[in-house]
Amino acid sequence: MTxxxxxxxxxxxxxxxxxHLRVATPRGTGVVPFYRxxxxxxAANVSRIVVLLHGRLRDADxxxxxxxxxxxxxxxxxxxxxxxxxQFLATADIGAHGxxxxxxxxxxxxxxxxxDAVGPAPLSSFDVLDALIEQFADRARFPALTxxxxxxxxxxxxxxxxxxxxxxxxKAPGVHCRYVIANPSSYVYFDAMRPDAQGILRPADxxxxxxxxxxxxxxxxxxxxxxxxxxxxxxxxxxAADVIYLLGQEDRDxxxxxxxxxxxxxxxxxxxxxxxxxxxxxxxxxxxxLSHRCWExxxxxxxxxxxxxSHEGVRALFGVERLAHVIAPSAAxxxx
Length: 336
Description:
Layout: E1 19-25, E2 28-36, E3 48-53, H1 60-73, E4 81-86, H2 91-97, H3 125-136, E5 147-153, H4 155-166, E6 176-182, E7 193-195, E8 201-203, H5 231-240, E9 242-248, H6 263-266, H7 272-286, E10 293-297, H8 304-309, H9 311-318
Parallel strand pairs: 3-4, 3-5, 5-6, 6-9, 9-10
Antiparallel strand pairs: 1-2, 2-4, 7-8
């Protein structure tokens, strides 16, 4: 099999972030590339930081472009928003771009569930987000900062969703944190209930699908980052968090090439739209006072640029009610 016969996500990325975040924990140290929309000298008026997480193609540059397009369309001052896009590289990216030995890299998609990097240190993608938020959500660096948004589409939405449940999050005094979760393939269920073909919650068939309750679909066998976590308290914290789910109304292809079609994922529904609707209903049943919001985006399928640039996407990311101008669904930027 040649390089070009491989799936798109198993080919080296076209571009690597031009900034570098050092992540240091007792387990080791590594560097993650990232992009940002402005430099430190422009930080005085920043009131919102948006951390945007790329999908399975690891195309952080495309996601930065999508976020910039969405911000340009928003009826808000772009100088008050800092965009950050970290990049979770695969092992193949290191050699293809001649990157330094201290660059963190994962198995192709293991970063989506918070697994540890395969080198140079066993650090989780959640450790990376902890470090990014700690370094940037800092009122000493950004005195006007009031909001941090952690958002993702597709594979990035899987990271944002799971980090919202188990991650350290933003602890800076006076700074509000919101999570925006757009079109993920799967969600974390806190018990064995799953939707049947009619969307009615019933106990999952563990004989037919033994791993249905395992991470990243359930809470059993969670990765090292959360191995000592108590999910009862984490669920309560998650239910109380500011979370917006964005679902493309046309993201309903059960055979989409990037859709997780494993047994555990299929137990959540036939496609992303159904899975998102069912998960939101599941949480509402478990938490009747749930304040999470679920917004559907008409006319949009599995397209990151179109989701983020929609009225609903701009409102979720930037807290504004309208667009200064409409972004066409075919706009350049992230797709997967």
